[in-house]
Amino acid sequence: MTARVLLVEDSPMISSGLKALLESAGFDVTVATTATEAAAWGGMTGPSVMLLDINLPDGDGLTVIGALAARGLKPLTTYAMTGHTDSTTRARCIAAGCEDVLLKPVPVRQLLRIVSEAVA
After folding, report:
1. DSSP conformation letters of 83-120
2. How confident is the prediction for the chain on average, in pLDDT?
3. Reported pTM
Protein backbone atom coordinates (compact mmCIF):
# COMPACT_ATOMS: atom_id res chain seq x y z
CA MET A 1 0.00 0.00 0.00
CA THR A 2 1.25 3.48 -0.86
CA ALA A 3 2.14 5.70 2.08
CA ARG A 4 -0.27 8.60 2.45
CA VAL A 5 1.03 12.08 3.19
CA LEU A 6 -1.15 14.92 4.41
CA LEU A 7 0.60 18.14 3.41
CA VAL A 8 -0.82 21.11 5.30
CA GLU A 9 0.54 24.24 3.64
CA ASP A 10 -1.21 27.48 2.69
CA SER A 11 1.29 28.65 0.06
CA PRO A 12 0.22 27.34 -3.37
CA MET A 13 3.77 27.56 -4.69
CA ILE A 14 5.22 25.54 -1.81
CA SER A 15 2.41 23.00 -1.68
CA SER A 16 2.42 22.34 -5.43
CA GLY A 17 6.19 21.88 -5.45
CA LEU A 18 6.21 19.57 -2.44
CA LYS A 19 3.23 17.61 -3.76
CA ALA A 20 4.96 17.01 -7.10
CA LEU A 21 8.19 16.03 -5.34
CA LEU A 22 6.52 13.58 -2.96
CA GLU A 23 4.31 12.07 -5.66
CA SER A 24 7.33 11.54 -7.91
CA ALA A 25 8.85 9.56 -5.01
CA GLY A 26 5.75 7.32 -4.92
CA PHE A 27 3.73 8.85 -2.09
CA ASP A 28 -0.02 9.50 -2.20
CA VAL A 29 -0.31 13.19 -1.26
CA THR A 30 -3.34 15.17 -0.11
CA VAL A 31 -2.93 18.93 0.26
CA ALA A 32 -4.87 20.99 2.79
CA THR A 33 -4.48 24.78 2.83
CA THR A 34 -6.15 25.49 6.18
CA ALA A 35 -6.36 23.86 9.60
CA THR A 36 -10.08 23.30 9.04
CA GLU A 37 -9.47 21.52 5.75
CA ALA A 38 -6.72 19.35 7.27
CA ALA A 39 -8.89 18.43 10.27
CA ALA A 40 -11.55 17.22 7.83
CA TRP A 41 -9.18 14.51 6.47
CA GLY A 42 -11.47 12.02 4.77
CA GLY A 43 -9.48 8.81 5.10
CA MET A 44 -10.67 5.76 7.00
CA THR A 45 -7.36 5.84 8.85
CA GLY A 46 -4.97 8.67 9.55
CA PRO A 47 -2.26 9.62 7.10
CA SER A 48 1.10 7.90 7.37
CA VAL A 49 2.88 11.25 7.60
CA MET A 50 1.61 14.77 8.13
CA LEU A 51 3.80 17.72 7.10
CA LEU A 52 2.26 20.58 9.00
CA ASP A 53 2.73 24.30 8.51
CA ILE A 54 2.05 25.81 11.91
CA ASN A 55 0.98 29.25 10.66
CA LEU A 56 -2.22 28.87 8.67
CA PRO A 57 -4.81 31.43 7.53
CA ASP A 58 -7.41 30.12 9.97
CA GLY A 59 -5.14 29.68 12.97
CA ASP A 60 -2.55 27.49 14.60
CA GLY A 61 -1.71 24.43 12.52
CA LEU A 62 -0.90 22.45 15.65
CA THR A 63 -4.63 22.22 16.39
CA VAL A 64 -4.91 19.77 13.50
CA ILE A 65 -3.08 17.09 15.51
CA GLY A 66 -5.71 17.09 18.25
CA ALA A 67 -8.60 17.38 15.81
CA LEU A 68 -7.47 14.29 13.90
CA ALA A 69 -6.70 12.38 17.10
CA ALA A 70 -10.20 13.11 18.40
CA ARG A 71 -11.57 11.34 15.31
CA GLY A 72 -9.16 8.40 15.70
CA LEU A 73 -7.16 9.57 12.66
CA LYS A 74 -3.90 10.73 14.21
CA PRO A 75 -1.03 10.46 11.70
CA LEU A 76 1.65 7.90 12.43
CA THR A 77 4.23 10.70 12.27
CA THR A 78 3.87 14.48 12.16
CA TYR A 79 6.57 17.00 11.27
CA ALA A 80 5.99 20.69 11.84
CA MET A 81 7.26 23.02 9.13
CA THR A 82 8.05 26.60 10.06
CA GLY A 83 10.35 29.51 9.43
CA HIS A 84 10.75 30.06 13.18
CA THR A 85 13.88 28.69 14.81
CA ASP A 86 13.25 29.75 18.38
CA SER A 87 13.21 27.19 21.19
CA THR A 88 9.69 28.17 22.28
CA THR A 89 8.22 27.27 18.88
CA ARG A 90 10.13 24.00 18.83
CA ALA A 91 9.00 23.08 22.35
CA ARG A 92 5.39 23.90 21.49
CA CYS A 93 5.51 21.69 18.38
CA ILE A 94 7.06 18.75 20.23
CA ALA A 95 4.56 19.11 23.09
CA ALA A 96 1.69 19.03 20.57
CA GLY A 97 2.91 15.69 19.22
CA CYS A 98 5.30 16.51 16.39
CA GLU A 99 8.20 14.17 15.81
CA ASP A 100 10.44 17.08 14.88
CA VAL A 101 10.43 20.61 13.49
CA LEU A 102 11.66 21.25 9.94
CA LEU A 103 12.97 24.69 9.11
CA LYS A 104 11.55 26.14 5.90
CA PRO A 105 12.61 25.91 3.20
CA VAL A 106 13.21 22.23 3.88
CA PRO A 107 15.97 20.85 1.62
CA VAL A 108 14.53 18.36 -0.90
CA ARG A 109 16.83 15.48 0.01
CA GLN A 110 16.15 15.95 3.72
CA LEU A 111 12.39 15.98 3.18
CA LEU A 112 12.42 12.83 1.05
CA ARG A 113 14.66 11.04 3.55
CA ILE A 114 12.47 12.01 6.51
CA VAL A 115 9.22 10.96 4.85
CA SER A 116 10.74 7.72 3.53
CA GLU A 117 12.13 6.81 6.95
CA ALA A 118 8.82 7.64 8.63
CA VAL A 119 6.94 5.11 6.51
CA ALA A 120 9.62 2.40 6.47
Report:
1. S---HHHHHHHHHHT-SEEEESSPPHHHHHHHHHHHH-
2. 95
3. 0.96
